[in-house]
Structure formats: structure tokens, C-alpha cells
Amino acid sequence: MEVKSNITISDISTLKKDIKKERRQLLVKRFLSNKSVVMGSVTLLLLGLFALIAPLVSQFSPLELDPANRLLKPSSDHLFGTDNFGRDLFSRVAHGAQVSLGVGISVSILTGIIGTVVGLYAAYYSILDHILMRISDALMAFPDILLAVAIMAVLGPQPMNVVIAVTLAKIPVVARIVRSSALVVKEQTYIEALKAQGAGSLRIIWKHILPNTVSPLIVQISYVFAIAIILEASLSFLGAGIPAPDPSWGNILYDGKIVIYNAWWMTVFPGAFIIFAVLGLNLFGDGLRDLLDPHSNKSIK
Amino acid sequence: MKAYIMKRLLSMIPVLLIVAVFVFFLIHLIPGDPASVILGPDATPAEVAHLQNELGLNLPIYEQFFHWFTGVIQGDLGTSVYMNMPVLKAFIEHIGPTLSLAILAQGISILIAIPIGVIAARRRGTNIDSVFMILAMLGMSIPSFLLALLLMLVFGVHLNWLPVAGYQSLSAGLWNFAKYLILPAISLGAIQAAVISRMTRSSMIDILSMNYIKTAKAKGVKQRAVIYKHAFRNSLIPILTILGETFGSLITGAVVTETVFNLPGIGQLVINAITRRDYAVIQGTILLVAATYLVLNLIIDLMYGVVDPRVRLNRK
């Protein structure tokens, strides 16, 4: 008896493994046939490599002042030219990439985790829902940037505080996405069946509802990443973000605006990197949405 | 209908209440004391203490909140300690540039985006469609302040066609008014246009595949009439939603864009107020902006009924 059931279980498990393998292959195929995702991933990969390698390759320090060589045009020596303090712009943009991407990644992870917890519990407990959703309404009624500037004024200009400010501004968006898909799942018969069997809320929420909210969450996170980069750049541009002299794409643009009549390169190069990063993330997110959500796929056709 | 509007207006109260509480306590957490900021570094401690007393800053924070909040309920948003004028007046003085900018940007974006979206949907899968959608993708990926800087670089600095900073009100003549706003409005409108054109396209595609469109075509209704009378009107609902949702990003963008072009709008008002620790101005302005946002969303919801009678019937 026991032996027999063992055999079936192992049979089933090999069968399951096969199906899983096939599914994975199918997913890879679909992934590669989606132009947006591929282009987005390549862009992000290149950018990531740039952020990792360029600061090591660059022969100038991003902070070294050289007043004799102020505002030099791009040349073979200074690939992107020099800024109003004679610092090498290539090196500053490269170090800025680390800062901007670092802020983006941290914000994505934090909003992802906190937004998921808030969204799931709001969907599961309706009393909590009323409270949390009113708070998120209120947070969303603030324009992002004003909220972030106000928080920065409280916390002081520090990279870590930029992450906190942007995260706070973006949690409601993620929480709402998770909540709306969790609400749909919650009404399914199998959740009712689980409850009838006496499953605890912890198990239902984390084991049965969470997996069904993952794909919209991932898509949303890629957009949050993009917005985080824009917000960081905006904050630093306003002088409320990454403090000088540390480079970030935003505060290079700020320096660049002062000398916009003399040095186009200080606006164009950091600007191009911001566009490149945001474009990559948007392409990736759009493609991923089509890949994961069959409904929107239909409308694209 | 009236009951619905009342219900919606009432549901704004808790949201605004949370905004009020949140903004008040957040602002009061900002280190630095308004009295010493106003008086400058040379003030003696006694002078600072005197002004603090006058401004009510030495009261416990909950009393300060209570004081401010009773004023707000009675329509008094407080007085700017720095500019020495009522917050409402400061707000009204600064709303002109921001509103002109936002309306112009929204107008430009709608004018560009809706035709592009409709054409892309009609010619779906063709090169025109791809070009439009690549442009839209690019438009979505340029933060408005960056586009502002780039436009400034090209049209202001190199071509010298338009001024790079400043503002003149409408009373200075239409061209003088417009020339300062064109670049900011384009840079702010571009991202809107990108979002709206994508939405228009996908909404039109959904509608164009419906049976009643096929019926209309089969009956021999002209192509143009099918697109504009049968399909377009029905695809407006999601477009309207996007217009409401993007208003927030319009304001967000306006704050930074105003800074780029030195426009004396709401963005400058708040940012200056934050650096000056002008509590009343920050609180009042953010509250008013939040209220505007909520009212605008209500108006959009009401417009659904205008565009689509089915929504009107369901709501009863």
C-alpha cells in the first residue's frame, strides 16, 4: 500500500518537473520574442555595467577640483568635458549612475516589501482597509515632489533620506496595485474553502493570496524604479537631494543650468543617461506587463 | 445626481483631514525655527523668544494644531510670517502662472495626443503606428524638467527664439504672456501627451474591435463617421480617467518646471516657504493643492455621465 502510493507520488513529481521545465522553456521563449522586454533588459544591463565599470576605468576622480581646466569641451582627455569646477564630467556621470541606480534599487525593494504587506492586509481585513486606504488617498493627494521636498526638509539632504522620501511617496501606489489584485483573489472559492478547512489568516495571505499578486507587483515595481530615478534627479536638481559635492545626475544638471550658456555638455550627458535609464525601465515594464497579463496582450495585437 | 455629488464631497472630508494633520506635523518636524529664520543670524535670543511668543510657536504642538485647524475650518488658512500676508492671498497671487502653465500644457498635450492616438489605432501595426508609439515611449521617459532644460538649451540658448526665464501676466499682451510659457508648457505637456496618446490608442483599439463597429461598417456608415461618432466617443472614458490621474503629475512637473524657468508659481511659493520655514504657507498651499486634486477627480467622474449616458443610469 505504502510502496504503491510512493511510486505514484514520485511519478507525479517527475511529471510535475517535466511540466515545470516545459513551462520555463515556454516562458523564456515568450520572453525573448517580446521586443520591449528584450530591449529594456539590454538597456538596463548596459547601464548596470556602466555604473559598475566606468568609475573604475575613469582616470579622474569625480571630486577633484581643477580650476585651470574649467568648462572644457568634450575631448579625448575628458570624454564628457569638465564642469564649472574643472571636475571630469565622465567620472561624475559614472559615479552619479551608481547613486541614481542605487536609490532606484533601494526604493524599489522597500516599496515592494512595504507596499505588498500593506496591500495584502488591507485587502484581507476590511476595517484596516478603510484606514489604510484613506491614509494612502491622503498621501496620493500630495504631489510626489512636494511630499518628497517636505520630507527632505525634515530629514536633511542625505542619500538615505532621498530613499526614504521617495519610498514614502510611492508606497500607496504599490499598495493599491497589490490590494486590488488581492481583493479579487480573496473572493475566489478556493480561499473560502481554505477558510472552511480552518486555515489561518497568515497562511491564506502569504501562501495563497500573495503568489497571485506577484505579476502586477513586478510590473509596477519596474515603473516605481523609473519614477524613483526621476524623483531623485528632480530632488537633487532642486537642491534637496544628494548634497554637493557628491555627484548625482540631478545635481550635475543643477550645476549645468547655471552655466547653460557656456556648457551644453553638462546638460546633455547626464540628461541622456536619465532618459536612457527611464526608457529602459519603461520598456521593460511595458513588455513585462504584456508578457504576464494575457488581457492587455490581447489589446496590443 | 445631487445625492451622489454630496456623497463624494463628504468623502473628501476625511482625506483632507488626514492631509491637514499629516502636513501639519510633518512641517513642524522640520528642524529650524521660523522666528530665528525671519530675524536672521544677528538676532538676540530675547528677540527670537519674543517673536516666537508672538507667533504662538512656544505653545504645545497640539494647541498650535488646534489653533490652526479651527482657522482652516472657518476658511482662514493663516498668515505668512515671512511675506506678512494671508496665505490665501499669497496662493491666489501665485496660482496664475501655475494655472496658465497647467492649462496650456494640458491643451497642448490633448491637441497632440488624441489625433496621434486615433491615427495609431486606425493604422495599427503599420510603420506610422510604430513611429508614434516609439515617440510616445520616448516622451514618457523624459522627466519634464529635463526636457525643459534641453528645450531651453536649443530654443533659448542656441537659437535665441524664446526667453529662458521669467513671466509676464496676460495684461502685458498675449505674445508677451505666451512667449514665457511656450517652452515650459511644451516640456510639461510632452509627457502628458505621451501618456494620453497611448491610452487613446489602446482604448480605440478595444472599441474598434467591437461588434457594433462592424455593424456600422456593414451598414455602410462612412469610415470617418465610424471613427469619430461611433468609436471615439465611447473610447473617451479611459482617456478621461487618465486626464484626472495625470493632473497630479502635471502639478508635480509644474513645481520643478517652474523652478527651471523661474516662473513665480505655486511650486516656487512652496519651495521657498519650505526653506524659509514659513509653516502657514506650506500647510495652506499643500491643503489647497490636495483639495484641487480631489475636486478635479470628482469633476472627471461627473463627466463620465456626460460622455456616456450608461454611466449616468447606473449611478442612481
Automatic annotation (TrEMBL), chain A:
Keyword line: Cell membrane, Membrane, Transmembrane, Transmembrane helix, Transport
Domain of life: Bacteria
Pfam family, one: BPD_transp_1
InterPro entries per UniProt: BP-dependent_transpt_permease, MetI-like, MetI-like_sf, OppC_N
Gene3D superfamilies documented for this protein: MetI-like
Record membrane topology: Multi-pass membrane protein
Stored SUPFAM superfamilies: MetI-like
Stretches that traverse the bilayer: 37-57, 99-123, 217-243, 263-284
Location relative to the cell: Cell membrane
Domain (ABC transmembrane type-1): residue spans on this chain: 101-285
Keyword hit for Cytoplasm: no
PANTHER family: ABC TRANSPORTER PERMEASE PROTEIN, OLIGOPEPTIDE TRANSPORT SYSTEM PERMEASE PROTEIN APPC
Similarity field: Belongs to the binding-protein-dependent transport system permease family.
UniProt protein name: ABC transporter permease
Organism: Virgibacillus tibetensis
Organism ancestry: Bacteria, Bacillati, Bacillota, Bacilli, Bacillales
TrEMBL record, chain B:
Family of the protein in this entry: Belongs to the binding-protein-dependent transport system permease family.
Segments traversing the membrane: 12-30, 99-120, 132-157, 177-196, 236-261, 281-307
UniProt name for this protein: ABC transporter permease
Localization (cell): Cell membrane
Membrane topology: Multi-pass membrane protein
SUPFAM superfamilies according to UniProt: MetI-like
Top-level taxon in the UniProt lineage: Bacteria
Pfam families in the record: BPD_transp_1, BPD_transp_1_N
PROSITE patterns reported in the protein's UniProt record: ABC_TM1
Gene3D superfamilies: MetI-like
Main localisation: membrane
Source organism of this protein record: Virgibacillus tibetensis
InterPro entries for this protein: BPD_transp_1_N (IPR045621), MetI-like (IPR000515), MetI-like_sf (IPR035906)
Residues annotated as domain ABC transmembrane type-1: 95-304
Keywords: Cell membrane, Membrane, Transmembrane, Transmembrane helix, Transport
